[in-house]
What we know:
Elements: E1 4-10, E2 13-18, E3 21-26, H1 30-39, E4 45-49, H2 57-68, E5 72-74, H3 79-98, H4 109-127, E6 135-139, H5 146-153, E7 158-162, H6 170-173, H7 179-186, E8 191-194, H8 197-211, E9 215-216, E10 219-221, E11 226-231, H9 238-246, H10 248-261, E12 265-272, H11 279-292, E13 300-307, H12 314-334, E14 342-345, H13 351-360, E15 363-366, H14 375-383, E16 390-394, E17 407-409, H15 414-425, H16 429-445, H17 448-469
Parallel strand pairs: 1-4, 1-6, 4-5, 6-7, 7-8, 8-11, 12-13, 12-15, 13-14, 15-16, 16-17
Antiparallel strand pairs: 2-3, 9-10, 10-11
Helix pairs in contact: 1-17, 3-4, 4-5, 7-8, 9-13, 9-14, 10-13, 11-12, 11-15
The structure holds 6-O-phosphono-beta-D-fructofuranose.
Keywords: Glycosyltransferase, Hydrolase, Transferase
Family: In the C-terminal section; belongs to the trehalose phosphatase family.
Organism: Hymenobacter caeli
Amino acid sequence: MPKTIIVSNRLPTKVQRTENGLTFQPSEGGLATGLGSIYRQDGNAWVGWPGLFLEDAAEEDFIAEALRTDSMAPVFLTEAEIQEYYEGFSNSTLWPTFHYFPQFATYEPAHWAAYVAVNEKFCRAVLALAGPEDTIWVHDYQLLLLPALLRRERPGCTIGFFLHIPFPSYELLRVLPWRAELLHGLLGADLIGFHTFGYMRHFLSAVSHLLGLPTQNGLIETPTRTVLVDAFPMGIDYERYAEAAASDAARAHERTYRQALGTGRVVLSIDRLDYTKGIAQRLLAFGQLLGRYPEWVGQVSLLMVVVPSRDQVPQYAALKQEIDELVGRLNAQYRTIDWNPIHYFYRSFPPDELAALYRLAEVALVTPMRDGMNLVAKEFVASKADGRGVLILSERAGAARELSDALVINPTDINGLAEALHQALVMPADEQAQRLDTMRALVKRYNVFSWAKLFMNQLAYSKMKQHTLAPD
Ligand code: F6P
């Protein structure tokens, strides 16, 4: 019976070396949840990096065996590979380019060479598991070359690819010295999925401009095969967030926070540390709100969670410093003896505390400069069963295509953002409920499970079509 193999840079379990030995930490991430029922089925597997550097061969066997019992197969990477393939080409070349920050992009041949080599390493790991008729679903920008590498070795496999970040305009992509290789890499797939039609259009335009291939109605004709391209906006596990927000644990945490904050109103911001998230602009807008509407001084606080990420990449370290300084400056400027404008946390929160933060917040500020989708926006909506709360959402997050009942803003427009904050704080309760109801119905229906199912169905269909269209 044909198997399904999921491939992503990181495995859904993180292995860590502690003083008590190795620990295996399952990921709470949406992707792991959405694909759980697929990769855990008999014979199926998830291939990816377990997140630690090996010390010896015995450790390798031990980890591989432990992960195998939970349907996972590790690809071990060296420190040099992580530096050049992950921090280098993936996060210093592709990430800034695909998020419209070309000024941060580096173009290092050594990073490219490592990216090719690590994609080949992933290919070998998949080939060790994949039969000739299996289905392989590859995820994200770290593995753009993998579909074509797999296709060469397993021409009969059904191969899908999903990009979790934006696909940029052709004008951005064409700057990359390796643009053609990257596009050819993707075209090894039968189906290529994006979060939005906009990203999909950019990809089709890049393929026709840079490779000169005909593209029509989401179909790309390569000399040997037809590749289907489509939009699949990713969702969340709605019930999990709704239930977490209603849980006793979340309510208890909320009471504790409430006691600490008094009667103050809360605006919430949660992100990974990343220059794409617009964190500095958000802080400036909050400062403008307090300057322009002094009635909010002493009344509204920004609760800002920044989750550490990629701190070995220079721009991330610089951004951390910029945020620290801005928070310091604004708190010094506006604080009173018994009130703090900004509560800033540089760490992650466990799920029940996160649920409490969503409960507590009257306004969520989700204002990235660019974001493939942004699931925080959907998590906030799912957590607001009582119909109270306002989502302020960047028009440049993929989620804005679906959540149009949010206050949709341009994140570069600090004035506009400050005004949206004011508007959110004075929005009548019935308007809040109306907007949230519409968004909640959508987030509930188009969840991560329907997303995975839709992609897998379309992948099977694209393979069927491949057979019908294949030249004799
Ligand atoms: O948004 C793209 C993404 O790769 C997510 O899949 C992931 O959760 C996030 O960026 C952080 O990725 P990492 O810590 O692996 O660099």
